[in-house]
Amino acid sequence: MSDELRELWNEVVVIPDFPMPGISFKDISGILANPVTFGITVRAWADAVRPERPSMVVGIEARGFPLGGALAYELGCGFVSLRKEGKLPRDVHRREYVLEYGTSILEIHRDALNADDRVVIVDDVLATGGTACAAVDLVRESGAAVTSVALIMDLPFLEGRAALEGKGVRVHALIDDDGAPYPNP
Ligand code: AMP
User: Fold this and answer.
1) CB count in 10 Å sphere of residue 20
2) 147, CA 20 to 30 Å: which among 113, 136, 141, 157?
3) Which residues form the catalytic set?
4) For residue 175, how far is its CA from the centre of ligand 1 (angstroms)?
């Protein structure tokens, strides 16, 4: 599996100083555009999270949607969207959080999950962990349990993983910011 994971880095484009000076943006769209790397990603996550017996995948807008939808299909789970402010039409739980660059708000429909749900949260990149921690809080506020967060890449120097593990959530990242397969428990 770790040889396969090395292929993911070939599809990552690093854009210096985007969206602001000092940020090294990791564009993972190529991983989705290539059916080989898309498949490697989804199967690696599915293998990692299956023992946690998830019932639902929650994807964070926007890249968590195609990634999370594919994982949900692979696992035979349902899929729920966590959206940016003002997009969901019915009653929501909401959380404001701090990003590597600025602040943002995430929302989830209040009736999207229930107490029986065991949730894996999906996003593309883990930076400070602010987004993923807000997602964990929203899922818990909805009454469901979070088993883990699945990501393509962790930027270890920003210590998002420690923030999530401090909340009692497992982190399944596939590669680090040099493209090396990431050590997972
Ligand atoms: P954070 O909340 O700081 O962990 O940031 C994670 C969220 O912001 C994810 O949804 C990423 O898509 C995006 N993000 C933050 N930093 C980067 C980066 N350097 N490269 C690509 N995406 C990033």
Assistant:
1) 10
2) 157
3) 63, 100
4) 14
Query: What residues does each domain of the chain span?
Result: 2-176
Cα 54–Cα 108–Cα 100 angle in degrees, nearest 5: 90
Question: pLDDT at position 99, please?
Answer: 81
Structure tokens given for 45:
């996550």
Reply yes or no on whether the pLDDT at 1 is more than 90.
no
- Record the tokens describing residue 129, joined without a space: 């962990």
In our burial notation (b when 16+ CB lie closer than 10 A, e otherwise), range 78-112 reads ebbbbbeeeebeeebbebebeebeeebebbbbeeb
Q: How many helices (H) and strands (E) are present in the chain, helices listed first?
A: 6, 9
Nearest residue CA, atom 12 of ligand 1?
Answer: 125
How much distance in Å is there from the Cα of 132 to the middle of ligand 1? 10
pLDDT at 3 over 90: no
If one looks up domain 2-176 in CATH, what number appears?
3.40.50.2020
pTM: 0.97
Total residues belonging to the chain:
185
- CA separation, residue 82 to residues 40, 47, 58, 144, 158 (Å): 24, 23, 7, 14, 23
Average confidence score pLDDT of the chain: 96
Q: Which residues line ligand 1 (CB under 6 A)?
A: 23-26, 60, 63, 99-100, 123-132, 160
